[in-house]
Amino acid sequence: MFETFELTLQANCRLDRQPAILVAVSGGPDSLCLLHLLWGLGYQLVVAHLDHGIRPESAAEAAMVQRFTEGLGVRNIHERRDVPEYASQNGLSIEEAARNLRYQFLFGQAEALGLQAVAAGHTADDQVETVLMHLLRGAGLSGMRGMGYYSLPNPWSQTIPLVRPLLGVWREEIMAYLDQHGLQPNLDASNLEKRFYRNRLRHELIPQLEELNRGARKRIWKMASLLQEEDETIERVVAAAWGQCCLVDRNGAVAFHFGNLRDQQIGVQRRLVRRAIARLRPGLRDIDYETVERALEFMTSPTRSGQMDLAAGLRLSMEGERLWIADWGADLPDENWPQITPGKVLEIAIPGETRLSGNWVLRAEILPADDTLLAQAQANTDPYQAWLDLERLRPPLVVRGRIAGERFHPLGMGGQSLKLSDFMVNVKLPRRRRDNWPLLVMGEEIAWVPGYRIAETAGVKQKTRKILWITLMIENRRNE
User: How many CB atoms neighbour CB 73 within 10 A?
Assistant: First the structure.
């Protein structure tokens, strides 16, 4: 067992003998076997044990782990947490609360001590149980692949891997190893309680599958291994799509370019949504089918408010060409939106520059009209540039926010007007940015809604003699 195990450590878990590895040891058969194997191969180790404070015998089990590690000459770190209290405060099941606190403890210690990895004692049997749990939940390929030998990044760290060296070892092999070396593990009686979902799989469903089809466990394990390889191939495609679609990923928010996301195949769309949720909720284990489908349905049929609840305190919202997945309490980044200070009216410098909020600058320049410039004006596709007929503009030319009830005469509508509020809705200008969106106004009439349209009464014509060329830009882009 030593030879194949050491090969797994090097090839699958990517472990070196130094620096030390943090080994999660509950004192049960799996973790005790893992610790003894690593110790026997001469790896530098630190043992971590978390007393969950659930069962009366937990203190005695912690003491047993302490004695065992001292006998091996291995450093032991022990803490106690009140899992029931944590579960109650956070609305979690006891199992989920224990898992969250356990991994927070393990990775916190590994980071503080500068260790190379956290090693857990998950076995081949655990892999089969995990795959079946995901199957019954209706998971996709990423769930059916089960656990991996090496996980980085993982929900608890971007730099410290979670490794599972026993993932190819069956429980009967572990018990035989413990008997051979005279090791006495702690036996957790709660592992027999069928009120826990995983225990029912272990003690009821899997034996029935073996009775129906001998060797079912091993076939499920092999299937998971094959699916991992295929899933990794798909993930490379998804990673490339993420680079094309993701515009923002910080401060509790992820934004996708809606058009680019919509152009992806439906399977890639699902994975991108899952990846966004996982980045915002790294400890969330169950991103179910209905959650992902709700997000895809929102893409094709947004709610009237432009936002909706997704899952686990996350919301979906649509702003122009951006689809946001974010915390309900998150302030969405807005550095790419031009804004003007509420209530402020700025007379623009002609020629010259006028500074708006943030790093936005409005630059105005007077140009003599000729055929080349008129053609350039007609061909302009930059929504943040306006080519205006200077002689058609009525002073003063100012920049301000919108006024309730005012109307706009967009170019291309034959001189007809509509409410500015309706225009903003039609062009999908983000609701939270409408009030302070900068407008170029001549007298009482809107000459230009930057980013969208100039007015019918302000555009250049063949008879134009002087052009007012206005550009709205972010200052750091201008300096590039």
Answer: 8
CATH number for position 65: 3.40.50.620
pLDDT greater at residue 316 or residue 306: 316
The answer, yes or no, to whether residue 286 has pLDDT greater than 70, is no
Does the pLDDT at position 196 exceed 80? no
Q: Does residue 420 contact residue 446 with C-beta atoms inside 8 Å? A: yes
Q: Indicate the pLDDT class of residue 287, thresholds 50, 70 and 90.
A: confident
pLDDT tens per residue, range 446-455: 999 999 999 9
User: Are the C-beta atoms of residues 49 and 26 closer than 8 Å to each other?
Assistant: yes
Chain centroid to CA 134:
20
Mark which of 327, 361, 391 sits at the end of a domain.
Answer: 327
Q: Is 332 part of any domain?
A: no
Per 3-state DSSP, the chain is made up of helix, strand and coil in percentages (nearest 5) of: 40, 20, 35
Question: What is the DSSP track for 158-182?
Answer: SSS-EE-TTTT--HHHHHHHHHHTT
Is position 219 within any domain? no
- Same domain for 367 and 453, yes or no, is yes
Long-range contacts formed by 38-45: CB under 8 A, 24+ apart: 38/9, 38/119, 38/165, 39/72, 39/74, 40/2, 41/2, 41/5, 41/6, 41/9, 42/17, 43/9, 43/15, 43/17, 44/17, 44/18, 44/19, 44/20, 45/20, 45/21, 45/74, 45/75
pLDDT at 480: 44
Find the length of the chain: 480
35-56 per-position pLDDT tens digit = 999 999 999 999 999 998 888 8
pLDDT at 253 over 60: yes
In this structure, the answer to whether residues 40 and 160 fall within a common structural domain is yes
- Looking at residue 128, its pLDDT comes to 96
CATH number, position 252: 1.20.59.20
Domain span holding position 195: 2-123+132-212
Q: Look at residue 134 in the predicted model and tell me its pLDDT.
A: 87
Residues 300 and 232 both lie in one domain: yes
Residue 339 domain flag = no
Of the residues 188, 212, 236, the one at which a domain ends: 212
Whether residue 158 sits in one domain with residue 69: yes
Distance (Å, rounded) from C-alpha 321 to C-alpha 164? Answer: 42
- The Cα–Cα gap between 365 and 248 comes to 34
